[in-house]
Amino acid sequence: MLGFVRTRQEISFVIYLMLPTLGIGCSGGGPAGELGLVIVVGLVALAVLVVIIETAKAKGRSPRVPSGRLNNKRGKHLDQMLKERKGDHLTEEQRKTIEENIGLYHWLPEKLIAPWEERTLVFLDFFPFTDMKAGPVTKEMRLLVAAEACLLIVKRPMSDYRHLQRIHLWEDEIEGMENARGTATRHEVNLSWAHLKKTIDKARDGHNLTLHEFAHVIDFADDGIAQSIPVSRHSTDYEEWRVMIGEEHQRLMKIYESGKNYSIRAYGGYESIKGDKPELFSCATSAFFERGVRLKRECPRVYEALSKFYAVDPANWRKKKTE
Q: Which fold has domain 64-316?
């Protein structure tokens, strides 16, 4: 029974229910009372240990009440910063860096350039990057990560990143996670710079590391859980997303089990032991921005849901002609 206890209130309630069974009351005394008291103390200690373990298990799930007000304030502040940046632009040097490195830049419609630059500037002003062991994170590195992260919210509010607190760049391997190229929680993102550089200029492979990890941050934002439903349970779109993710996950698994290829990569089929599907939204996001035409053809339902959520239509983007 204690395995299902999660809060102090529940612990107290369980112990309260057990008191009569243990023969402990307000007037309890003698050896029996002392024995009962020892048992209760043991139960309390065990229950506290259970809470600690369960908290540790909840990866990426942050306490919602204590951080709620803080992050609501951060969200409002981010959106206000964006308003204040209205009409601001990147420097010519910054634009050149983006043009020479980010593959999707050459596909982005002209009307989206201004809001993209405004968001990139806010991102650079607000979010800290930690230095790599091999040396400091350069201005170029910060700019490229910020620009790609802001592609996701080019038509959305900055407050999508209200819970994000820091970005860690690693020269190659992520410490403690040597097999991971990138990781994300509600509060931080880890990126392997070596792998990021391999994917950033490829606008059509559906494997963009930065888009993938920051899509996780957006997925976490509404409820602290990465389950590929990026909208609140109170949203009118929640049930549609829930059903669609379940059905698309099954479809994805069947396609890859049959040996066929698909616009959403196989990693999107990962399922946690709790039944959540944390990778589908992120993998679908990468496919949406980089394989829009194919995703729309193969899975129009997913494409339309993402197009509504991100408020863009990559399937109709056309590559700019180079001079």
A: Collagenase (Catalytic Domain) (3.40.390)
pTM of the predicted model over 0.85: no
Q: Which range has highest mean pLDDT (4-18, 46-60, 82-96, 127-141)?
A: 82-96
CA pair distance 86, 63, nearest whole angstrom: 34
The amino acid occupying position 242 is R
Angle at 115 between CA 96 and CA 224, to 5 degrees: 110
Which among 37, 47, 40, 39 has a CA at the least distance from the CA of 2? 47
Cβ atoms within 10 Å, residue 255: 18
Instruction: Pull the structure tokens for residue 174.
Output: 């992520």
Domain ranges of the chain: 2-57, 64-316
Rounded to whole angstroms, how far apart are CA atoms 280 and 228? 6
CB 264 within 8 A of CB 252: yes
CB 144 within 8 A of CB 97: yes
Beta 182-184 vs 129-130: how paired, if at all?
A: unpaired
Range list of β-strands (E), 171-288: 182-184, 188-192
Averaged pLDDT for residues 292-298 = 95
3-state SS assignment for residue 258: coil
**For residue 110, how many C-alpha atoms fall within 13 Å in the half-sphere facing its CB?**
2
Phi, psi (degrees; rounded to nearest 5) at 189: -125, 135
